[in-house]
Please model this.
Amino acid sequence: LTAALAFWLPPSFAAIYLIAFSLTTFDPHLLISFAGFLGFTLTAILQLNRSLIQRCMTNVQLRHQKHIVELLLRDFEENSSHWLWETDDDLRLRNVSPRFAAIAQMPAHMLNDGSMLDLLHVPTLLSGAAIPGLALQCLRERSAFANLVVPVEVAGQPRWWSLTGRPTYDRSQR
Model:
């Protein structure tokens, strides 16, 4: 605000002085019109300043809230029996949580960029069972699912995982 007023005040007062005292004929209409214009510009400066301050305060609050959510999510991941996973639009694993890597008995860097379908597809598990059709359909169609039990093979041993997921999309609806 100070910078805006520092640029606004000197030329404004100089222009009023010139209109009021330096013209050969005094024109009150010109002086009133210019004063109205200066009032309008001062109001605009004050409103823009208020808007900018409010936007900055909102940004600070959003950053603070994002930090809190990240802390809570990290705490949830570390202390919960649940584990988190993400897939991209090609169903490749992204941002595998440490808990997920521990359950899969694989390092997280090996799971990242791997296909979720490859991880879940076990052709010879328990009498030839493969990933259930519903699980495959939900993953391919990007539809929400809850407590979906799927067979997996972890370190050569058959396991059953109960998965819950829901799709989230970016601004481009991907």
The chain is about 55% helix and 15% strand.
